């Protein structure tokens, strides 16, 4: 089973569920209550829009438990003395890996939370999540040619520019090594 939560130093990254997506789409007043987090003023951020929410909900509904963790994820900034736990962005996979073990990621951070390294941390968490599944061998991501910030996020997470994609965006790739099995101990098998 795929873990449905991962953490980085400043983030809790939570897999979208049908309940969360349904609330986000149809009962937005309950969405922050279910997340246990404050909402940013500009939600939803970037390319994460109602179409993406509907797509993730449809995929989770069609795929049942097997699809959990392979679509949207919410990035929650951990509470500090100065701020409550806050939803700061979203990211995730465009679906399970293909037969070769390739999966695509995407991410977006709310405007108020940009330029703080949180997108880099979110992508790092998604890479960790992909490795933890043991199913992903390569991650790909696409970004607009003028989005230098997004390109830097990918480069900081060991993605390399693979060239232009068919849709004129840039394609980045990164190999993923499976996470070590903690049951095997530090020495491996």
From TrEMBL:
Question: Where do the N-acetyltransferase domain residues begin and end?
Answer: 33-187
Task: From the Swiss-Prot or TrEMBL record, give the protein name.
Answer: N-acetyltransferase domain-containing protein
Q: Which CDD domains match?
A: NAT_SF
Q: What is the lineage of its organism?
A: Bacteria, Pseudomonadati, Bacteroidota, Cytophagia, Cytophagales
One Pfam family this sequence matches: Acetyltransf_3
**UniProt cross-references to InterPro entries, sorted A to Z:** Acyl_CoA_acyltransferase, GNAT_dom, N-acetyltransferase
Recorded GO molecular functions are: acyltransferase activity, transferring groups other than amino-acyl groups
Species of origin:
Hymenobacter sedentarius
